[in-house]
């Protein structure tokens, strides 16, 4: 039994559901979902998050802005962040890496790859 | 690939979302076409359409719907270049977008209805047309075009490619670029920030919103906004009107930076309205694109056909506020006339009084006019609901027939917006838990098809919306058992069926313990009730086991301007919406009886529970209670309550102003209002007080 919490930030309900089922099939992690960057900002102080999976293109604030916030905030600096974005957004993914994203996954994603990364960062 | 025999819930979810995206794309593209006509493009809209196609591509790819994925991938490419300004949105592009969307919708619908798609020919034809619109990729220079702005690395580092393009475009247009720094309480930042961004969007473009930590204060969050506008620094500072917000103008561009390349050679036709003819001409891939050039006359006639104007509801709110303030100004003129008459200026006073009366009549007309603009028929809500019902019943494998009544009943636009989520939850519940599966229904001797009936009608100053199903109804015994198990009651034999039904509105009663901020998941009936109470409405349930349930939602027609009864209690003044006041009584202490430690009075044939404002709000009474006092009988739907007050001070029209998130936890207050004589008073939330009184009583 693990009590680690994973935050999924994506504005697509189906994409979140896919990620949830991908995560649920490996271990009993707590999963918290946010459909916008704002929701993620609100959830962060309430939940002890151990890993974040985020999309880049979202309404209100984008994934890069969320990442920049995390990396400049001592409370969240250490949380590993995995970007989940589409192939067309290579430039944005590169920026994400510069901002300190730990890894990235291209949509449509390979569940095995996501599971592998989660285990890598959460042990 | 598209084998639906193995279709699982995930695929159904995907199709539901795909349908939603396709619907939204359709209406947004129509808006885009309107804008292209007027030449005034909204980058946010274009970006939102791009995001729609982008999500659809990703999702379809995951589920192996190759055709949808291929088509949306190509649409995404086109939309990406459009939003990055690398190609121009002309009528050929619009027509291609419309055609692709039509095909996309067809693909999604066919799969959703369980059919096989084989549209590879149409898709290839469509892709050819999309590719014809694509421009050669732009050469990127290595020099940052933003160096002269002196932007912080943090801000620059978090800009997406699209945001960089918007920044560049605005610099090229000679707009001024500002950074705006704000700090908010973490609990309310989204509301506060959207106020500022709405103000800003009205006079420029909000390019990016970067959150940052607010120093050492953990309860706050800071934002750095990147904003472009034609307006001067002082104008913007004034518009925001908040000293805590700092605005800075960034180094202005002396020279314009490398403009995006527009392939003029491909499409440089003038913009004309997209007509059906252009669209149909494009359906066949072999027909060359040859749109008829519009003459001035065509444009003229197309313009005169439209007799409606789209107005932002915010503008109507502003207008309503001004009307409200005029009403207040009128009240003080009328009061002045009376004062003058009392002081002996009778002639002038009478004339002034007459003018004030005339003004009052015109103001009433104006108020009515503005109110009418805000009203929309609930039928708009029905369309949305029918889509949702179809979707959910398909997901659940249940057969549901829909019946709608009273589609032309009118309600304030904002109320219609706010009621749609709660209604969706009620309907979802009705299908999830109410309507039985076709087999069960046949076994029970019912029609295989369940029925959901949604009806609305006006009732005095309220509108009632009823959602009725002929399913299994609520099993009150089960509810009681659960209440016992959750420790809400000690002894179920004391709980009536009606009280038991009210339990389902308690927080945590019907929900699972899953953390989620996403609407539609983990949302219980308590949220439904709170949402309805928030717009001064009320919800009741009637149910009969085995025969179905009926949810009765009672709503005010508008929240904009309301007539209130001004009351006072222990030196404090409050306003009570007149729509909920049924009558007022003058009583003495001896008329009050006590039943089970609750104060009540006998009113005609019924027993009326009483509420004392000082006890309700928990403040200390100043001075003794008066011998005689008034009881204001208020009621919403079928519930009644008597509020004990010291004095009645007359009626007045007021404009309710929201108190914001911070006051949400105080029950019984729906907002504040300005009385015109520099006094601000609290407006009581009758529905909230009644539920609170009944809850604490039972």
Rounded radius of gyration of chain A (Å): 13 Å
> What would you give as the CATH superfamily of the largest domain in chain B?
Histidine kinase-like ATPase, C-terminal domain
Biggest sheet record of chain B? 6 strands, mixed
Report strand order across the widest sheet of chain B. Answer: 14-18-19-17-16-15
Q: What is the helix/strand order of chain A?
A: EHEHEHEHEH
**Largest beta sheet of chain A: what is the strand line-up?**
2-1-3-4-5
Number of helices of chain A: 5
Mean pLDDT of chain A, rounded to whole units? 87
The CATH architecture category of chain A equals: 3-Layer(aba) Sandwich
Here the CATH topology of the largest domain in chain B equals Heat Shock Protein 90
Q: Considering DSSP H and I runs of 4 or more, what fraction of the residues of chain A is helical?
A: 40-55%
Overview of the molecule:
The complex is a heterodimer of chains A (123) and B (698). By secondary structure, chain A is an alpha/beta fold. Chain A has one domain: Response regulator (Rossmann fold). In chain A, 41% of the residues lie in helices and 20% in strands. Chain A is built from five helices and five strands; from the N terminus they run βαβαβαβαβα. Chain A has a five-stranded parallel beta sheet with strand order 2-1-3-4-5, sandwiched between helices. In chain A, helix 1 (13-24) links the parallel strand 1 and strand 2 (30-34). The model of chain A has no long low-confidence stretch (mean pLDDT 87). With 698 residues, chain B is of the alpha+beta class. In chain B, strands 14-18-19-17-16-15 form a six-stranded mixed beta sheet. A five-stranded mixed beta sheet of chain B has the order 6-8-9-11-10. In chain B, strands 20-12-13-22-21 form a five-stranded mixed beta sheet. Classes of the chains: A alpha/beta (123), B alpha+beta (698). At the A-B interface, helix 1, strand 2, helix 2, helix 3 and helix 4 of A face helix 1, helix 2, helix 3, helix 7 and strand 2 of B. Chain A: This is Response regulator. Chain A: The modification 4-aspartylphosphate is found at residue 55. Chain A: InterPro entries: Bact_response_regulator, CheY-like_superfamily, Sig_transdc_resp-reg_receiver. Chain A: Residues 5-122 form the Response regulatory domain.
């Amino acid at each position: 039994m693990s009590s680690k919490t994973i935050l999924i930030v994506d504005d697509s309900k189906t994409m979140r559901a896919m990620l949830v089922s991908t995560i649920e099939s490996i271990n009993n992690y707590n999963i918290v979902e946010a459909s916008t960057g704002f929701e993620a900002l609100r959830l962060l102080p309430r939940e002890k998050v151990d890993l974040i999976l985020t999309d880049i293109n979202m309404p209100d604030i984008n994934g890069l802005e969320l990442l920049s916030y995390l990396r400049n905030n001592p409370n969240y600096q250490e949380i590993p962040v995995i970007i989940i974005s589409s192939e067309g957004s290579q430039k944005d993914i590169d920026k994400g890496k510069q901002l300190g994203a730990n890894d990235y996954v291209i949509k449509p994603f390979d569940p095995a790859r996501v599971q592998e990364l989660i285990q890598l960062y959460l042990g | 690939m598209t084998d639906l025999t193995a279709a699982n819930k995930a695929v159904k979810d995907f199709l539901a979302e795909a349908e939603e995206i396709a619907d939204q794309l359709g209406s947004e593209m129509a808006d885009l076409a309107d804008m292209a006509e007027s030449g005034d493009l909204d980058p946010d809209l274009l970006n939102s359409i791009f995001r729609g196609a982008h999500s659809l591509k990703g999702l379809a790819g995951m589920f192996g719907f190759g055709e949808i994925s291929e088509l949306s991938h190509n649409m995404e490419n086109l939309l990406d270049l459009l939003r990055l300004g690398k190609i121009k949105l002309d009528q050929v592009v619009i027509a291609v977008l419309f055609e692709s969307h039509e095909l996309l919708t067809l693909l999604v619908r066919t799969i959703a209805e369980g059919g096989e798609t084989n549209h590879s020919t149409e898709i290839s034809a469509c892709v050819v047309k999309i590719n014809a619109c694509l421009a050669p990729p732009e050469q990127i220079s290595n020099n940052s075009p933003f160096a002269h702005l002196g932007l912080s690395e943090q801000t620059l580092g978090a800009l997406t490619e699209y945001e960089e393009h918007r920044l560049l475009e605005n610099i090229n247009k000679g707009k001024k670029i500002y950074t705006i720094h704000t700090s908010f309480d973490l609990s309310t930042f989204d509301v506060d920030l959207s106020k500022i961004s709405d103000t800003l969007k009205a006079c420029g473009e909000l390019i990016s919103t970067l959150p940052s930590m607010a120093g050492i204060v953990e309860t706050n969050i800071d934002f750095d906004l990147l904003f472009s506008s034609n307006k001067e620094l002082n104008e913007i500072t004034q518009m925001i009107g908040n000293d805590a917000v700092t605005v800075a103008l960034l180094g202005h561009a002396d020279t314009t930076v490398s403009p995006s390349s527009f392939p003029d050679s491909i499409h440089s036709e003038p913009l004309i309205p997209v007509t059906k003819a252009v669209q149909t001409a494009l359906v066949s891939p072999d027909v060359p694109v040859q749109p008829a050039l519009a003459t001035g006359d065509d444009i003229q006639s197309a313009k005169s056909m439209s007799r409606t104007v789209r107005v932002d509801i915010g503008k109507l709110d502003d207008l309503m506020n001004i009307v409200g303030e005029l009403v207040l100004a009128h009240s003080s003129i009328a009061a002045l006339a009376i004062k003058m008459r009392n002081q002996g200026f009778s002639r002038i006073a009478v004339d002034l009084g007459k003018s004030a009366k005339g003004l009052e009549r015109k103001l009433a007309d104006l108020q009515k006019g503005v109110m009418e603009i805000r009203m929309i028929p609930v039928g708009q809500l029905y369309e949305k609901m029918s889509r949702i019902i179809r979707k959910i019943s398909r997901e659940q494998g249940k057969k549901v027939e829909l019946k709608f009544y009273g589609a032309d009943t009118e309600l304030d636009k904002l109320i219609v917006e706010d009621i749609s989520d709660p209604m969706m939850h009620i309907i979802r519940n009705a299908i999830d838990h109410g309507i039985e599966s076709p087999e069960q229904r046949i076994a029970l001797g019912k029609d295989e098809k369940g029925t959901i009936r949604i009806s609305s009608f006006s009732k005095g100053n309220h509108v009632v919306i009823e959602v009725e199903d002929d399913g299994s109804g609520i099993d009150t015994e089960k509810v009681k058992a659960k209440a016992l198990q959750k420790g809400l009651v000690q002894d179920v034999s004391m709980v009536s069926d009606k009280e038991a039904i009210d339990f389902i509105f308690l927080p945590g009663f019907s929900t699972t313990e899953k953390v989620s901020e996403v609407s539609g998941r983990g949302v219980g009936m308590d949220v439904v009730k709170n949402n309805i109470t928030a717009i001064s409405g009320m919800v009741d349930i009637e149910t009969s086991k085995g025969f179905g349930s009926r949810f009765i939602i009672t709503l005010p027609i508008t929240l904009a301007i309301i007539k209130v009864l001004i009351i006072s209690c222990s030196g404090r003044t409050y306003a009570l919406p007149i729509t909920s006041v049924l009558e007022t009584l003058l009583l003495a202490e001896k008329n009050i009886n006590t039943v089970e430690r609750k104060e009540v009075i006998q009113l005609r044939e019924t027993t009326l529970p009483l509420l004392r404002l000082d006890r309700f709000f928990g403040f200390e009474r100043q001075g003794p209670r008066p011998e005689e006092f008034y009881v204001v009988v208020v009621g919403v739907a079928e519930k009644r309550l008597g509020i004990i007050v010291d004095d009645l001070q007359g009626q007045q029209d007021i404009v309710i102003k929201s108190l914001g998130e911070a006051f949400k936890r105080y029950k019984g207050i729906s907002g504040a209002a300005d009385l015109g004589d520099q006094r601000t008073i609290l407006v009581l939330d009758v529905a909230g007080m009644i539920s609170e009184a009944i809850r604490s009583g039972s």
